[in-house]
Amino acid sequence: MSLVKQLGAATFAVLILLLLGSAYLMSNSSKTMLLNQLESHGQDAATHLGLYLAPSIAANDVAGIETTVNAIFDSGFYQRIDISDSSGKILFSKTTPPLIDENVPSWFVDLIEITPPQMTRDVSHQWNKIGSVHVQSRAGYAYSKLWQGIQNTLIWFGILAAVSAIAISGLLFYILRPLKGVEEQAEALSEKRFIEQSRIPGTRELKRVVNAMNQMVKQVRLMFDEQSRHIEELRRTAYQDSLTGLPNQRAAEAQLAERLDYRQDFGNGTLLYLRITDLANLNKDLGMEKASNFIKVVGSKLEKLSQASEQSILGRLTGADFILLVHRLDDDSLKRTVSQLCADIQANFEALSGSAVIEKHWPVHIGVSHSNDMTGSNQLLTEARLALSDAEEDDQSYAIYGSDAKALQDSNTWHQHVADSVSQAQIFLQTLPLMGTGTSHSNTVPEQQELLARILDQHGTPCTAGEFLSVIKELGLMVMLDRAVIQRALEHASQNPKCGKLAINLSAEAVRDQDFIAWFKALVSDHDYKQHLHVEISESAILNNLDDVRVFRELLKENAMEFGVDNFGIHPAGFAYLYNLQPDYIKIDGSLIRKIDQQAEDRFFVSSLISIAHSLSIKAYAEHIERETQLNELNQLQIDGTQGWLHGKPEALEN
């Protein structure tokens, strides 16, 4: 029960006690007053009768006595009248039952006993006592008057109690309203949201409580902000280039290896390998400050270009070398993109150099290579460096390695096959197990199974995600693929209630699609096995669609479905979104895990990510576990679960 209701109930109880006390006192005082009235009334009647009946009593005239007594008794105010002689002999007696008004309830009569006093008056005649008169008034009058008084008291109490209840409730709500804000602050704080009350109450005690709560919120927020800044500083030191802010060589090559060598889900891509021409002489000719500014310009141009692609890998490998991997560009798009990039860099170079004489035709050269799902990161970098050497030797702005024929399945037939497979839901699912803390690769009970969508090529051979995902995105079929995967997963859960938790990777396109959201809400609202599904969204997709993801997260909460952040820890925007989004778990990106058993910086950074997740009551999982040494290191860092080929390679969901 709320404090307002408790105070209201206590106030009402006090009013009831006051009513009972008032009714008791009133009934007692009224009863005493009425008894006094009945006593006076009986005494007056006895005196009057004694004076009037003296001659009749002296003459022993019973008929006259009866006539007189009956005339008085018929008024209805008397219960008993006795007339006796000097010896005490009853000459005439008149009685009637103690009639009580029918409006007076019997319980009231039983509760309050009123016995009217019997008054006596001696009768004298010619200075001699000749008898006495005994008169007892009727109690019905007293009961009627007392009951009427009690009724009026109850009616007025009901009216005043209703008015008082409304007034007191409003007053208590106004006075205690700051406590509601304190309650909201406490709930928000448990969810790692920080709310301060701007309205400070005037009541001294409440003012102290609100100020103390606001101060605690400030301190907790400061603590989390300091923790986030510490981790961000660690990220910048270990994984970012200090001059341009781009990922450094270590981070860029790790992300390339993660996407191309391990996950193989990038699909057909285009790598730009850019080198600033003769950086040493450039520093000498322009000066360190202008040369540094030029390096920043090159980095910003590449960063802007990377933002045009939803998935990209960008980094500065050395002082003069940059790489940018984007989804596959056709010949026309590649020519326009690279030409525009070189022209922009040339213009900035000329603006910086001013009147300085620099005998270089191109301030940068670019080598271009293409990748498919079978291309490894080292091969792609080697091919790009060979193309860069050709561009430098010929003094061309850029050169392309190989021909366009190297693109896998890059034909209208393949596009049509992929479109038909997705539109007809001709997909099958594989699972990759995620094992809880302390489990080994020999344990066969996963905490979660991540679902991997696959299709068959024209020859009936299963394709990796990289072979068809880029085509699906190009054709705008990602939402359709997500629908097919969700339906297939729910069907499997319905047919296999003991299948455990199934994790689905949802695309950014689906989160932005209102029709998909409506479809998903209708599908899971009454589904018996919806709790089997965990929904994951990559960190990049979340940060690019934060408002849409927040709405979708609330939908998952309403349906008791868990939500996770995939590929966590590599986006430069930081972790502030975790406070508001409050996912159930994160999956630390495999590029941070691959060498965790070899590099102390990776261990420290991953340890910080786990710590910040646990401080927000979020589980932390790790991807790309291939060695026992990795698993041992992560268990020491108190990871909640691990996923990778150490625990088993993907298998068909039906198995």
UniProtKB/TrEMBL annotation:
Biological processes annotated in GO: signal transduction
Protein name: EAL domain-containing protein
Domain HAMP: 173-225
Keyword Chaperone on entry: no
Transmembrane spans: 6-26, 154-176
GO cellular component, as recorded: membrane
UniProt xrefs under InterPro entries: Cyclic-di-GMP_PDE-like, EAL_dom, EAL_sf, GGDEF_dom, HAMP_dom, LapD_MoxY_N, LapD_MoxY_peri_C, Nucleotide_cyclase
